Amino acid sequence: MNKLARLTLRARTGQVVALAVTVFFSAVLVGAFGVLLETGVRGRVSTGEYDNAPLLVAARQSVPVGGDVDMTVPGRALLPASLVDEIAAALPASRVVADRIVPAILGGRAGDAEPVDAHPWSAFALGNRELASGRAPVGPDEIVLPGHVARSHGLATGGKVSLGFGDRSVEYTLAGTTTADDTGVDVPDVYLSDGQIATRGNPDRGVAVIGVWPQAMPDEHTLARLVPPADARLWDRSARGPVEAVSQGRATAALVSASGALGAVAFIVAVFTVIALTSLQIRERSRELAMLRIVGATPRQVKRLLRAEIRVVAAPAGGLGGLAGPLVGAVMIDAIRSWGALPRTLQPVFGPFPFIAAMLTGFVAAEIAMRVAVRRVVRSSPLAQLEGGDTGPSGSPRTARRVVVGVVLLAVGIVMALAPTYTSNVDAASGLPGISGLVMALSIGPLSPQVVRAAAAIVRRPAARTAAAYMALGSIRHRAARVGGAMTPIVLGVALAAVQLSGAATIGTVSKAQAHAGARTDLTVTVSSAGVGDRTTELVRGVPGVGSATPFVTTGVIVQPPAGSDNSPQTLKALGIAGDQVERYADLKPTSNSPIRLRQGDVVLGVLGAAQLGAHVGDEVTIVLADGQSIKRHVSALYERGLGFGDVLLPLDDLQPATASGLASGLAVTVPASESVARVERRIRNDLADVPGAEVTRSASVADADGASGGEDKFGLLILLVLFGYIAIAVTNSLVTATLSRRSEFVLLAAVGATPRQRRSILRWEAAILGATACIVGTAFALPGLFAMTYALSNGDRIMPAIDPFTYTGIVTFTFVLVFSATALAGRAVMRDRR
Length: 835
What we know:
The chain is an alpha+beta fold. It is built from 29 helices and 22 strands. The strands form 4 sheets. Strands 5, 6, 7, 8, 9, 10 and 11 form a 7-stranded mixed beta sheet that branches. Strands 15-16-20-17-19-18 form a 6-stranded mixed β-barrel. A 4-stranded antiparallel beta sheet has the order 4-12-1-13, with helices on one face.
């Protein structure tokens, strides 16, 4: 049977290539996402910063979540300073070195600014780094820089460099340079004298790591007994990356989240497109298979033949795709690293799972499609199949079952889109509408013949005006099932593109709308990652025209649900501000319609964040701050503008000590109506000219101040482009398959006098009708979910999603170009073939 299968495949080169390409790229897609996911779970980063210490003690950089992946602490989890003395007292014969990290801003000769981490010189011994030139910093005004940083700022040993800690810059003398190069992994590490670092940051809770050189093995056991009470752990040399570069945890968590979510969508799309193409190809061969049955082939022999053909094509294509997929995933990781969204030293992890999943995806999907499609072939009358059309009895049980399946999928998608109207679970209310478009798009598979016939009926009168349009319409109605099979991946691509691109834009639009509606300040003053110092605050308050300057903190926190709730912990944006300054800062639109008054021990939650946690007014929640410290607070009120200002509101005294610098993130400045905001902005800029990293901007939301970087935006866009690229390949293959099987039809048209130009005109009309129908149906499937998602995110304030007309025009244009190009190329090949 394999020999016969190979003989039949030789006569159908076009269909064989189309199926092989689709299975190959399906395997590539699944394999690439598998490598992304495995790298996020098992990937490790190392800078060598703490590689030299035999024993390393540091806080846990994640929060355990029962039955789920651990959640990464939003900042760097720190240890209490008292633990250093406890370890030193318990191990008097051992060498104990502590590292304290203080964010700073480095300014060079050109006046540019660069965020850095300042360390005590004693912590230099913790890593495998060496002095490249000069000597250690001894005096209070000496500094050691990485060699590449010194060169980029044009500095040599003995040169002067300014360093800012949120206030006016302090001048230091370059004592030496190191061999360290953390480019693309973390901010540069600079070293000051131990005495200088001791006066900066949070002296009580500012220890990043503690290195120990034990004199005897029992010391390790003693150390292990000291660690658990401090919520710390011993870090093995091979796993110190999360402590050396805390950005690793957040980056890999984002990688797991994006590749997991979109990878699941990619898997569904891959399986669905392979099934659609395989079914289409078997349907195109209905005459051939009917002839086999007429000359004596049994249904079992037909099944064996088709199964052998699928295996001959899909097995090697899936195997090659399984080998290429991980390599494509590695290329994607390299691109993401180059944008700064992943640490530079994070290497792709290759395991057996991506290869096996990729290899099996296309093969199994094609096998399933063959088994489903062949049932129609062997159960139908071979004489009826010889007609070659798709105009079988509409009331047949097989057709009824297809319609029922399609209607059920469509109904499920509609129910998912309407989730905000019947559930208070915000994950379901905002998440289900986002994937409802995909579910409804899947219904186009079984419903495609009915959709095609309905579209043909709608354009029947306009099509009657020209002969080419009339012929195209008749062909589409006669081949409704086959046209629908070719249209299926197009609808899927349009719906998915509309949901993903418009959904992301809607979140940003709602966030900005809430921030704009609630903002009560005019300007925002920030000092990069160093925070705003006390002197800078007084300086801004003294600028003529400044009405008030309110310190605030923006950061991330992990909030545990209240007791009795089955919800999962959530990482949320947090805003810290003095309790009596909330109304001056913003109108958060509290649900109680009474002003928010923050008291010590209270927390106020956004309604979306509270719904995610299952929390209500009066509940007690546990909050893990940016430094890993946990606090318990009572929910005193709820507000609606959490997307614009953060879903957690805490007193400034709770959040500020947990920041890396111990300083406020910025100042919210108000300007009296009698003053010009632009004039006051210029005055503040002039007065802060000697504060490295100082920026003055118009008031922004927490989402703007603490949001994703450009690299992370490109990261998500790259994954979407890979997915859409695969859909484009599947669309092309479907259209080519559907067109190449029409040789006899075009030969007949030529025999009755149709010119090549007229035949090409028929194809163009078919492509236009197909493209327009796919765009309309795909958009119709995407809109209900987008409307519902917008309604849920805005708390009912708006229902219209943010649909960029240029983006949507681009989707439609790309769809039409793809449909016309694939149809025209395949049509020309068919018309050149004289067989």
